[in-house]
Amino acid sequence: MQVQAEDFFFSGLHLRGNTSNAVGSRVTPVFAAQLPGLNTLGISMVRIDYAPWGLNPPHTHPRATEVLTVLEGTLQVGFVTSNPDNRHITKVLQKGDVFVFPVGLVHYQRNVGNGNAVVIAALSSQNPGAITIANAVFGANPPIASDILARAFQVDKSVVDQLQAKF
Amino acid sequence: MQVQAEDFFFSGLHLRGNTSNAVGSRVTPVFAAQLPGLNTLGISMVRIDYAPWGLNPPHTHPRATEVLTVLEGTLQVGFVTSNPDNRHITKVLQKGDVFVFPVGLVHYQRNVGNGNAVVIAALSSQNPGAITIANAVFGANPPIASDILARAFQVDKSVVDQLQAKF
Amino acid sequence: MQVQAEDFFFSGLHLRGNTSNAVGSRVTPVFAAQLPGLNTLGISMVRIDYAPWGLNPPHTHPRATEVLTVLEGTLQVGFVTSNPDNRHITKVLQKGDVFVFPVGLVHYQRNVGNGNAVVIAALSSQNPGAITIANAVFGANPPIASDILARAFQVDKSVVDQLQAKF
Amino acid sequence: MQVQAEDFFFSGLHLRGNTSNAVGSRVTPVFAAQLPGLNTLGISMVRIDYAPWGLNPPHTHPRATEVLTVLEGTLQVGFVTSNPDNRHITKVLQKGDVFVFPVGLVHYQRNVGNGNAVVIAALSSQNPGAITIANAVFGANPPIASDILARAFQVDKSVVDQLQAKF
Amino acid sequence: MQVQAEDFFFSGLHLRGNTSNAVGSRVTPVFAAQLPGLNTLGISMVRIDYAPWGLNPPHTHPRATEVLTVLEGTLQVGFVTSNPDNRHITKVLQKGDVFVFPVGLVHYQRNVGNGNAVVIAALSSQNPGAITIANAVFGANPPIASDILARAFQVDKSVVDQLQAKF
Amino acid sequence: MQVQAEDFFFSGLHLRGNTSNAVGSRVTPVFAAQLPGLNTLGISMVRIDYAPWGLNPPHTHPRATEVLTVLEGTLQVGFVTSNPDNRHITKVLQKGDVFVFPVGLVHYQRNVGNGNAVVIAALSSQNPGAITIANAVFGANPPIASDILARAFQVDKSVVDQLQAKF
């Protein structure tokens, strides 16, 4: 079957994502599911929008490194290294700054400027996956047993119940 | 420089790990840092011990799939798929059962039997890394700003403060 | 040696590249040479600026696929498939459009709007390399023998001499 | 199609393999054929049982490194490096010892204790393959010409005939 | 389905390729399309024939390194490094000489002896692809706009028209 | 440090290898050790010479697939598939025939013509390694215990002693 230009094309990354949600951010993915021409090629792209104080909450990509550049706004970004150090590497980024989140590490971005913020990011897989920590841990379906989470996070079950109720 | 048998050898995986800690489990790693002959070969091994009701709390390996087999005891194991489904795939394992945790996904094991439990697990990297979610998120050093975590987990800062105090 | 936030950081991708050159475009690379934290991670980023009618002339990346999104302006983009078909896959892109150039294929972008154009692109290697066809073929140092090029391009040596004089 | 917990699960690695055979050992594989959830994930596991003086005879894995830990008994293990040195790297292992057999090298294990021996091993492919040297060389089907083997092993054809008769 | 010897077999690489064409050379490929047993194995082979002064014109392989040995004749070979240096690495080869063309770089061979020349080359992919620069650039179908090429090669459109007319 | 043409060059593959040895064949390798420019590029080349009835005895390459073409003579070639089938895939090759030996499988070539035979082969690694089965098994240094080999090959120790005496 012959490929066509449409197979390598996706439209809409200029559109502001809807950030009217609990975290005040929105990821618009351009993965192989959205752009079939990426298949087997080991790369993909996203746009992320942040309302003022919007947060792209702590998450990991199980199959990709991410590199991001700020198009608009001021963002605090960070990632945490593996056990046992759990070092928090963090930086405030301005327009035009670029930052790398190595494969599989927990990372986040938060809008710390006055207006909206926008980034374009690239990922080293056509199907990188994304695991929002809070959703995976407290919003899994069916839920992870609350006594597991109580012990893992060393809090009362009531706190876990409270957390699970949100997701 | 000539290799020697010692370069491919590690001793001590029969020893019960000390589970006198907050989660009641202990991982004994045999990675390239412990067994230099694994270097570049894309594989490693661990032993995990669990006290009764001990937990290997939710964590990820940023660079490896894990496959484990139960040597002793009864374990509930689970992993959570990526966004948006966050499906919780879980199973109770008995002695001789084998289970797979695909690369980068959040997973855990909990001793649900009456006695101790022991597993041998293998990982698809000589340097797989491990990220304990609670430690990376609430115990990062320096800490992740508490308002980031409050928003990510949709709880009051006081709850986050409580969580951060534990790690 | 401990990593620092600076190791994962690069600044300046908001700055318009100087397009006062023969082709009217400028690539600002963020490869491992510019951003050491990208090392071994298999990804990198560039900004490309185009003056009106500016051209990023036909080139290849020997070790990477490229995916690009238009930040500003209107671009005609294209790539050519391998022998024997040499199909020219081409498309006019507007702001927010995304396009993929598969690894190693000859591709180009041309500003076909009235004003400047800007893209952010990502590449599937921390060290993708770039081979501008005209420079590699007619500007190699020392030059490729002119009778080789005359035969390859099936023109008189005088045409080749004319071409080589430009590079 | 949705994955289920059963896709990531295999049962039976606690069962002693039947070692009533010519070499006195038995491999119980958990490869992608037995555990479909291993597919594409680059790892697998086996249990190996050894009767007293049982032997896992010289063999190679064409697509995997192996790392093994002794659960029970005392084993002599060894591998041989490539041409031209053919160095024999060997070691006697006790319970809890771990040893690595690099990808593609000829290796073996022999029970040198008084009782049974058991190991759990991991391999760096979901489909590692196994080539028992004696079977591949003297038991190929149809047979390798006996004059080839006589010359390769520098013995009379009668010796080769004797060897081929066994496999 | 069982494999057969025929699946791993190709015949005809001793036959002189027909060099009665504009460049005086002929590539006879043995890729996965010609030899299905190469599939997934990451290697392939070609024979190249050169009439006296025949040329294998400047081209790239988007997915492979090439290593070649001269069976007959005298060849000048060369490749050009990436931007910004565009260094021309060149050498005259005699029978029995071996030369490497690293993945994705523009390279060529030219018969500089009195008679025919023949090489056997190997490529590090079962499906390496080949992009003849002149054909991809001046013979793309549909054509690349002549003003793009005029600017890229810094010549009058009339020269480009002349070049495009040949391919 | 700047690369030079010499870094990508090796000379001497036209020279007949000395086949005055026990097996009547000779491999002339062009691996990264002989041709540094191959480093990291995942490919290499060899010439193999065979006296009449010469044999390249059963061997494996632990890190490479091999594809060969016959330059001169008539060769019987074969490889054996993995356990449990140990199928012997064999074919008589003439000049110009090409054959593939998949990664890690035991394979051999034997001159079955009247004169000398010559092949050029390529391997999918710059450092493929080679394990001659007879040497690795019966000629390891220090020797593999003769009772191991007696049991593996199911013959008397006296036969093993005889075999080990040759290597």
Notable features of this structure?
11 strands, Cupin_1 (chains A, B, C, D, E, F), Jelly Rolls, 3 helices, disulfide bond (chains A, B, C, D, E, F), globular, homohexamer, 2 domains, 167 residues, five-stranded antiparallel beta sheet
Please outline what is shown here.
Chain A has 167 residues and is α+β, with helices and mostly antiparallel strands. The first copy, chain A, has helices at residues 133-138, 146-153, 157-166; strands at residues 9-10, 25-30, 44-50, 55-60, 66-72, 75-80, 88-93, 98-101, 106-111, 117-123, 131-132. Chain A has 2 domains: 5-129, Sandwich (Jelly Rolls); 131-167, no CATH class.
Largest sheet of chain A: 5 strands, antiparallel
Sheet-strand content of chain A, in percent, reads: 35-45%
Largest interface: A-B, 57 and 57 residues
* Mean pLDDT reading of chain A: 97
Describe, in plain words, how this protein is organized in 3D.
Six copies of one chain form a homohexamer. Chain A folds into two domains: 5-129, Jelly Rolls, CATH 2.60.120.10; 131-167, no CATH class. The first copy, chain A, has 167 residues and is an alpha+beta fold. Chain A has three helices and eleven strands, in the order βββββββββββααα. Chain A has a five-stranded antiparallel beta sheet, with no helix packed on it. In chain A, helix 2 packs across helix 3. Chain A is globular, with a radius of gyration of 18 Å. At the A-B interface, strand 4, strand 6, strand 9, strand 11 and helix 1 of A face strand 4, strand 6, strand 9, strand 11 and helix 1 of B. Strand 8 (98-101) of chain E pairs antiparallel with strand 1 of chain F, so a sheet runs across the interface.
